[in-house]
């Protein structure tokens, strides 16, 4: 059942709960935007924009004039749309499109950002090429994605709960390391300026961890409307069993990349 739904389908379903469940993603977006070099980044493209808090971080830091947000999950774009009144000075348009089929012009943006979305894109090198195309020469790209390593404790919970191989095998397939993303950036005609991995040890109450899982992996849980699938319930029980008095302890790696597009 879950294999029939794509990641954007899942994000559409969980969109209303997303912002409350992913405080670490919000903090990561802030760090990504704070890491961009100063510059005239007045036309911004946000790929996999979701509910818009990476875009909002961009608008707070730079005098942005226009922003295009791209995301195939219409439910996420609906939540973003509810926030547009907060930015009356900025020309914001949202497009329900896949990264590989963005209807945006080449060389037409000063900055392209993508936060916590690349790991959901099936073709990562191709997606980086697709995101580099609309960036003007001399423009800046900022990517935040899930990094290699970490999440071993979480993977053990998933395996013990009998999660489908598409989920237990997801980590190896979709996590990236510093060298891999630097190579992909160069292959797309970009020059890496600052690429780094952070590994964080977190202790999170199991119910909070489960809420975050339901917000970011709805398509893998396959929950019916208003209820929970069997695998959801087994995972929830496994998280509680694996938790200590302060919560579930796990490591999470985030990979950040800041790059510029070469002239010519
Ligand atoms: C974890 S959310 C991140 C949203 C936002 N950038 C943030 O930092 O909170 C990942 C987003 O990527 C989007 N996404 C997944 N696959 C995509 C694709 N093929 N093309 C564009 N966006 C995609 C999802 O719909 C979802 O909104």
Structural notes for this entry:
This protein has helices spanning 7-21, 23-34, 53-61, 74-82, 124-132, 152-160, 165-168, 170-174, 178-187, 206-216, 218-221, 230-242; strands spanning 43-47, 66-70, 91-95, 109-115, 135-150, 190-204, 248-261. It is of the alpha/beta class and 264 residues long. A 7-stranded mixed β-sheet has the order 3-2-1-4-5-7-6, with helices on both faces. Helix 5 (124-132) links the parallel strand 4 (109-115) and strand 5. Helix 2 (23-34) packs parallel to helix 3 (53-61) and helix 6 (152-160) crosses helix 12 (230-242). The protein starts with 6 loop residues before the first helix and ends with a strand. The structure holds S-adenosylmethionine. S-adenosylmethionine binds at residues 7-8, 11, 25, 29, 48-50, 53-54, 71-73, 76, 98-99, 115-117, 120-121, 216. S-adenosylmethionine is lined by residues 7-8, 11, 25, 29, 48-50, 53-54, 71-73, 76, 98-99, 115-117, 120-121, 216.
